[in-house]
Design brief:
The complex is a heterodimer of chains A (219) and B (259). Chain A is α/β, with parallel strands linked by helices and 219 residues long. Chain A has a domain of 152 residues: Rossmann fold (3-Layer(aba) Sandwich). Chain A has seven helices and ten strands. In chain A, the strands form two sheets. In chain A, strands 6-7-8-3-9-10 form a six-stranded mixed beta sheet, sandwiched between helices. Chain A has a four-stranded antiparallel beta sheet with strand order 2-1-4-5, with helices on one face. Chain A is globular, with a radius of gyration of 17 Å. The two termini of chain A are 22 Å apart. The longest helix of chain B is centred in the last third of the chain and has 33 residues. In chain B, helix 5 crosses helix 10. Chain B is an all-alpha fold and 259 residues long. Chain B folds into two domains: 57 residues, no CATH class; 186 residues, no CATH class. Helix content of chain B is 76%, strand content 0%. Classes of the chains: A alpha/beta (219), B mainly alpha (259). The interface between A and B is medium-sized, with 27 and 19 residues.
């Protein structure tokens, strides 16, 4: 089991209401979980907890058989990588933004890949014709999301966390992204947790609804 | 040339001018009268007190007492910075105090030892005024830097957290905010250096010239002070900004600012 979540609970203040209260789920390699729910219902918070950008008040998250605090946070985040709803790119080239993580100390040992070696991945994500010197912030919403996913996949994670990957996309682009993601996930044996307020799932994903801080049974 | 003495009565003439400004404020409805009175009263009292304290301190012949006096000045400055900032997600007094103390002590004793070559090394006549100039002038810069740091982390929290989520350490994720903060703190000092001697004559030099010092020598002292203020401001801002920025994150590289 790559990811095991038990009785997870979170609230912003010590006396405030629980945003998440008793979340349980398990994911194996190749599993795709889509969490649906209303805005402000705690979906993004769930991803933040999985990525250890925040810690829960109760419950445990195990990654690859060990609780999250057993891993150095910087290393954990590159193995269970989070793609935000709106990726904040630098006012810099596509290449610079794509390879940014390799300038961080925690990843320097891996060596910075050359842009050309990223081409097959970019092609798979339908970014084949992209100009590496183009300013990333000028790309379309869909291109930016796919570039952010490419950046995440370059880290070769075991788990991909997607926050509203479809937001701002028209129906055609949504279907295209779904097809692309299904292929990439299957090929790499990734486990994926995707959250969305839209009534939408990817491929053979399990869909669960987040309601009142709890995940409803699949169905 | 001996400087002309100023009696307390003669200082009173200057205060009378301030009263005149108060009347103007009253007539124009500027509502500055209370501030003018309070600021004038406080500055006169503080400086008179300083004169008496300096009179005492200049008689001291023990180095550690002089260092203690300097540390007291730094502590007051750090406290001022800490109380002046409205938005303070983390404690800033100790990082500010220690960063300021470190950079000012080193620079003050560098100036008295290596530049002026005074004996003894703690000569209060030199150490206290120099230290005071450094503390006073760079205090504002440090307050500006910290204010900008918190605003920057708040504004760019999305970028900061995304960098963290891609494996960046706290130091890397906050590098942008730190850079902007240090720049914001230093720019007023740099700007004032660009206009010094053309647009304005610095206060210290004016005081020296008025009290009879050769302008050439007064200028050299002023240059030394300006350069030291620049370095003290830069060093202090860099140290305090990086330290406080790290405090805005947990040990596990999580941004601490409230969402």
């Amino acid at each position: 089991m790559i990811l095991r979540v038990r009785d997870l609970a979170f609230r912003y203040t010590a006396s405030g209401p629980w945003l998440l209260d008793g979340i349980d789920f398990e994911l194996d390699r190749g599993d795709f979980l889509t969490v649906r729910g209303d805005s402000g219902g705690g979906k993004s918070t769930l991803l933040r907890l999985l990525n250890r950008l925040a810690d829960p008040q109760r419950g445990t998250i195990e990654f690859d058989g060990r609780p999250l605090p057993d891993y150095p946070a910087t290393m954990l985040r590159t193995r269970m990588v989070l793609v935000f709803q709106e990726s904040a790119f630098l006012e810099a080239s596509v290449e610079e933004n794509l390879l940014l993580p390799f300038t961080f100390r925690s990843l320097r040992g891996r060596g910075r890949p050359r842009f050309e070696t990223c081409r097959p991945l970019l092609e798979q994500l339908r970014l084949a014709g992209i100009d590496p010197s183009e300013t990333a912030t000028r790309l379309s919403v869909g291109q930016r999301m796919r570039l952010a996913i490419a950046r995440a996949l370059l880290l070769e994670p075991n788990v991909l966390l997607l926050d509203e990957p479809l937001a701002g996309l028209d129906p055609d682009s949504r279907d295209a992204l779904a097809t692309v993601l299904t292929g990439v996930v299957r090929e790499r044996g990734l486990a994926v947790v995707s959250v969305s307020h839209l009534d939408w799932g990817i491929g053979t994903s399990t869909v669960r609804r987040l309601q009142g801080g709890r995940l409803e049974p699949p169905g | 040339m001996n400087p002309p003495a100023i009696s307390l009565l003669e200082l009173g003439y200057c205060l009378a001018l301030v009263v005149g400004l108060g009347v103007v404020s009253l007539r124009l409805g500027l509502r500055l009268e209370r501030d003018l009175a309070w600021a004038s009263a406080r500055s006169v009292l503080q400086l008179l007190l300083l004169g008496s304290v300096l009179h005492l301190v200049f008689g001291v012949e023990r180095g550690w007492i002089i260092v203690l006096v300097l540390l007291g000045m730094v502590a007051f400055a750090a406290w001022t910075v800490a109380t002046r900032l409205k938005q303070k997600p983390v404690g800033i007094f100790w990082p500010t105090f220690i960063s300021m103390a470190l950079s000012y002590l080193v620079l003050t004793f560098f100036a008295t030892g290596a530049v002026l070559g005074v004996e003894p090394w703690y000569s209060p006549h030199h150490v206290i005024p120099l230290g005071g100039m450094l503390v006073g002038n760079s205090m504002n810069a440090i307050a500006v830097s910290l204010d900008r740091l918190f605003a920057g982390l708040e504004k760019d929290r999305r970028l900061v957290e995304q960098w963290l989520s891609l494996g960046a350490e706290a130091r890397e994720a906050s590098a942008f905010a730190c850079r902007d903060a240090v720049r914001a703190g230093l720019i007023p000092t740099i700007n004032s250096m660009l206009t010094v001697g053309i647009v304005f004559i610095p206060g210290m030099m004016t005081g020296q010239i008025l009290s009879g010092v050769d302008p050439i020598l007064a200028v050299r002292y002023q240059i030394m002070i300006l350069l030291l203020i620049l370095v003290a401001t830069g060093l202090g801002s860099v140290l305090v900004t990086r330290w406080v920025a790290r405090r805005c994150f947990t040990a596990h590289h999580q941004l601490r600012l409230p969402a």
